[in-house]
Design goal:
Blueprint: H1 10-31, E1 35-38, E2 44-48, H2 53-62, E3 116-117, E4 120-121, E5 127-129, E6 136-138, E7 142-145, E8 148-151, H3 152-157, H4 160-191
Length: about 190
């Protein structure tokens, strides 16, 4: 096979090079993976170039996107900041919520069956209490008060000294006032 050499001017070379680079960049842009969050009927409700559910959800929340009815089934949201997210009616079945911050998240109507919340497989919606000094999140097996998450049996057995170490005198006074209410809420939640 014979090689053919074509001579072109520097201007033509630069123009061809620019056109090739432009087409390559356009192709890269078009093929960039877009992460889409769809609602429960398949409509795209949020799109991002982030690569994990956690990153996309946190970006969506910070941009105040409405994630109600979002289909997040089996999503890995471990450690995600979901505080104040509108997840009303969201499908979170079998999602990994270990270490997720759910303070003030609207979970009304959300499907949490089988979701993993710090080792507990949820089979019903948790109780969420706000408006007190601490945000409270109650499941069958665990209670999170503020940033402290413990099994119900541990909360029930904590001594005054242990509570004092956790949050000082103010925290102890608060705990003595609300302990029975919180533990009773957990018992009612289990029975429901």
């Amino acid at each position: 096979m014979k090689k053919i050499t074509i001579e072109i001017s520097q201007d033509t070379y630069d123009l061809l090079k620019d056109q090739i680079e432009e087409k390559e960049n356009k192709l890269k842009e078009e093929t960039k993976k877009k992460f889409k969050i769809k609602n429960n009927i398949g409509e795209v409700i949020y799109e991002s170039e982030k690569t994990t559910y956690k990153e996309v959800i946190e970006e969506a929340i910070s941009s105040e996107a409405n994630l109600s009815e979002a289909n997040l089934r089996e999503a890995n949201l471990s450690g995600a900041n979901l505080s104040e997210a509108n997840l009303c009616g969201a499908n979170l079945r079998r999602a990994d919520l270990c270490g997720a911050d759910l303070r003030e998240a609207n979970l009304s109507g959300a499907d949490l069956r089988g979701a993993d919340y710090n080792g507990e497989k949820l089979d019903k919606k948790p109780i969420q209490l706000s408006g007190l000094k601490y945000y409270i999140f109650i499941t069958k097996e665990q209670i999170k008060i503020g940033c402290k998450l413990h099994k119900v049996s541990e909360w029930d057995k904590f001594t005054d000294k242990e509570i004092l170490v956790m949050d000082g005198k103010e925290g102890l006074v608060w705990w003595k006032k609300y302990k029975k209410f919180i533990l009773d809420a957990n018992k009612l939640h289990k029975e429901e």
